[in-house]
Structure formats: C-alpha cells, structure tokens
Amino acid sequence: MQSLSYFTLLIVITLFAFSIVQSKKAVDETHCEVCIKTIGTFFESLTDDEKTNPEKIEKGFKKFCSKIKVDSKEHRLCYYIGALETSATYAIGDLSKPLSWGIPIEKVCRERLSKTNPQICDLKYEKQIDVNAVDLNKLKVKDLKKILSDWGESVDFIEKSEFIKRINEVKDKYVKPAVDTNKKDL
To answer: Residue 170 and residue 131: Cα distance in Å, rounded?
Structure first.
C-alpha cells in the first residue's frame, strides 16, 4: 500500500514538472507582430488619463486608424478590429477594456484579440531579402520577382535564370556593396 502511494506521488511530480516545462515555450516574436507594433505605437500616443478610459481608447483608436495608409498591414488590422467605417465586425471593446485595465499589449493581441479574429495574428511584416548575403539560385521565383518589383524594375520574365540575370544587372543601382570586415586597416 505504501509503495502504491509513493508511485502515485512520483507520477504527480513528474506530470507537474512536465507541465512547467511545457508552459515555458519560447514565444514566436513574429506572432502578432503587426498588432503589437501598431497598438503599441497607438498606446504610446495616449495621455495617462486616456490610457485608463475605455471610451477614450476606442475613440482614439478610430482616429488613429483613420490616418493610417490604406492597403497597409496596419490598415488591415484596423479593419479586423472594427475601427474603420467599412469594418464588418466591431471588436474594439476587446482592445479598449483590457488596455484600460493595464493588461500588456502582447497579451491583448495574442490572447484576447486573436480569440475574436485569428486573422489578426496572421498579419506579418514582409522581411527584406539581403541580396548580397543570399544565394539567388536558392530563392524561389516569387522572391526574385519581389526583389525586382520592390526596386521598380520590370518582372515580365519566364525563367528563373532571367530573373537572376536581371537582379545581377541592376543590383549595384539599388544595393550598396557588402563591406568586407576581414580586411584590416594598414
């Protein structure tokens, strides 16, 4: 009987330790990055009085969103939350109330707003490709097209080799050469 309770205690401790390890998973910094950055910028613009009043937060966020560039990730976030005239939903309360209570922005975005609309956390900023540091042959055609279109160059090629050739032809016009840090000053 004594060994049975010892065994049960051992299982309980093992499960408890396992649950602690599982709860300490690293947070993906790109998860909800648009939401966190946009709401962080907005929240910093508020006065201390406004930060504790849900109605003022809602009104301020609508005003903030009305000034954001259309077709940007931030504009899409405002649409999802319901801060635009054209928004199909209205989830500003899920933003304003927790913020007024002092809940961290990361928690508001990743837990509260993503429950209402999971698309909020799907918004991500596009990463810039360092042409000097990457092997162009290993990139997808989609990425090669993006490099050229970001530079304002024509992208009407068919073959991957044509994209790579064009990037190499115009690269010096758009990208500064990589600095060799191995060279020592004489």
So the answer is: 11
pTM of the model: 0.62
| Right CATH for 33-122 from 3.90.400.10, 3.40.640.10, 1.10.225.10, 2.30.40.10 | 1.10.225.10
Determine the average pLDDT of the residues in 44-57. Answer: 95
Q: Which long-range contacts (CB under 8 A, 24 or more apart) does 137-143 make?
A: 137/164
Query: Any alpha helices (H) in 136-186, and if so which ranges?
Result: 141-151, 160-174
- pLDDT value of position 51: 95
pLDDT of 23 over the 60 cut: no
What does the alpha-carbon distance between residue 94 and residue 18 come to, in Å, rounded to a whole number? 33
Domain ranges of the chain: 33-122, 136-174
| DSSP H helix total and E strand total for the chain | 11, 0
pLDDT tens-place string over residues 73-102: 999 999 999 999 998 888 899 999 999 999
- The set of long-range contacts for 112-118, using a CB threshold of 8 Å and a minimum separation of 24, is 113/32, 113/35, 113/81, 114/32, 116/89, 116/91, 117/80, 117/81, 117/89, 117/91
